[in-house]
Amino acid sequence: IIRALYTNTIAGETLEGGSTITQQLVKNLFLSSKRIMSRKVEEAILASEMEHYYSKEEILTMYLNTVYYGHNYYGIYEAAHGYFGTSPSRLTLGQSAMLAALPNAPSYLDPYTNYEGAKARQKLVLEQMVDQGMITQAEADYAYEQDLELVEE
């Protein structure tokens, strides 16, 4: 957040967001999407309050159940069914990585209209999972090589 504040101040415009998952949830649930500094302060205060009352797991669950994934899909359940015709618990690693990438830029990363861009972002998510020790490189490679098997529009 501090880096984003510094970068935005130097540039004289909003270039970076720097929001945590909790701050994004607060913005999605309670605040406007206007990118102004006073909103960022309010967002940080409300996020701090939310973290006082909810566990990280509860906050992540709320975020996943409310975030926009494109194609008018809000929440992981709608996105899993809409894109892949399955429930979140039955998603493959590759499909999960794709859905994890979408909230960042759901229109640009739309796998129906920008499959290559969506696959590139999926690869980035998989690489981050390897870096964090969540999966092996072999698992990431296998997941990336698999076709996404999108539901036809």
From TrEMBL:
Keywords assigned by UniProt, alphabetized: Cell membrane, Cell shape, Cell wall biogenesis/degradation, Glycosyltransferase, Membrane, Peptidoglycan synthesis, Transferase
Chief place where the protein resides: membrane
Keyword Cell membrane: yes
Residue span, Glycosyl transferase family domain: 1-129
Keyword Transferase assigned: yes
Molecular function per GO: peptidoglycan glycosyltransferase activity
Protein localization: Cell membrane
InterPro entries in the record: Glyco_trans_51, Glycosyltr_51/Transpeptidase, Lysozyme-like_dom_sf, PBP_transglycosylase
Listed SUPFAM superfamilies: Lysozyme-like
Gene Ontology BP annotations: cell wall organization; peptidoglycan biosynthetic process; regulation of cell shape
EC number: 2.4.99.28
Catalyses which reaction(s): [GlcNAc-(1->4)-Mur2Ac(oyl-L-Ala-gamma-D-Glu-L-Lys-D-Ala-D-Ala)](n)-di-trans,octa-cis-undecaprenyl diphosphate + beta-D-GlcNAc-(1->4)-Mur2Ac(oyl-L-Ala-gamma-D-Glu-L-Lys-D-Ala-D-Ala)-di-trans,octa-cis-undecaprenyl diphosphate = [GlcNAc-(1->4)-Mur2Ac(oyl-L-Ala-gamma-D-Glu-L-Lys-D-Ala-D-Ala)](n+1)-di-trans,octa-cis-undecaprenyl diphosphate + di-trans,octa-cis-undecaprenyl diphosphate + H(+)
Any matching Pfam family: Transgly
Protein name per its UniProtKB record: peptidoglycan glycosyltransferase
UniProt organism field: Veillonella dispar DORA_11
